[in-house]
Write a structure and sequence with these properties.
This protein has about 375 residues and is an alpha/beta fold. Helix 8 packs across helix 9. The chain is globular. It starts with a strand and ends with a strand.
Length: about 375
Amino acid sequence: MSGGVLLTGSAVRTCLGDGVATFAALLRGESGIGPLRYADPDRLNVRHGFHIEESGQGPDQERPFRASGWLAACVTAALAQAGVDPARQRVAVIVGTGLRELRAVERSTDVPPHRLHFAAVLRDAVPGLADIVTVSNACSAGGHALALAQDLVQLGEADAVVAAGADAMTESMLAMIGRVADGPAAALRPFDASRTGTLLGEGAAAVVVVPEGSSGRPLARLLGTGLSCDAHHETAADRDGIARAMADAYARAGRDPAQVDLVVAHGTGTRLNDALESELLLGTVGVGPLVTAVKGAVGHMSGAAALVSLDVALRCLATGMVPPVTGLERILDEGRGLRFVAGAPAAAAVRLAQVDAFGFGGVNAVSLVEAA
């Protein structure tokens, strides 16, 4: 559906901390990368990852159902910031994820099927929630959750909807990354000419979507999310599919690409995706907006990736500061002309931001948010 809604609460959990700590670390150009935990790096051909430090746990002690815990904390915090009370309002939650709680199954065969999803843990954490739906849509799942949340609010199906995302690392996904890499990547370097591939991060994010005119102080206005599902290839992105998602976003938002001030790019650090995204951005938004990306600092967070990028976009709107792309030293040839933020943060008056998220199987989501 077209027409904007308001975002009134946002919370994230990354390897760098909560939203405030993550944004501060991004502005400093810091990275949360560290040695791979909980798995054999030699067997997987992956030696590094972006792990969350667990309170009260040693570096080799893996708490079960970690994604569920991060998700519950983020949903609770986002609702509190928004001033939304599920006991008095109809509040739904759409959770986007790539892997659900697959890691729990890898660790134990005694996992009840309902624990793969997130409804039970969220009902325990936030009593009174209405519908809770888990959407497994690869690396753009958080963006798809955001689009569904906007539709539900505009249709009057809920007073507020939480769009959320969560994923923990799994050995199956790590093995996939290791198999397609020539060697273990030492860093994730989005849009760098010497990039060697992606690395996994983990964490969760949640944002509260409410109708225009709702009480409370809005963080921003969500104008629209463009979606596409091209099924072009199991893993490789498709130019036309991503272009359709971008065009859909501009049409839903009623905005021209030339109006975009900032792009928080998908930026996976892979040979194909970074080049393709750069070419498409040059062909749509052109050389005007600043471009940043966060995966070099927090890793590829799968289902939470889009909403973590959204949280960063909201903070750029609020502060007028745009963090640099961690790991970007020499811009890839296809990106020459784009205004990548590199080396140091940039001060900018950002009113309209674009957030890109592209996933396996050609599921793509492009969101546009503006200052409210």
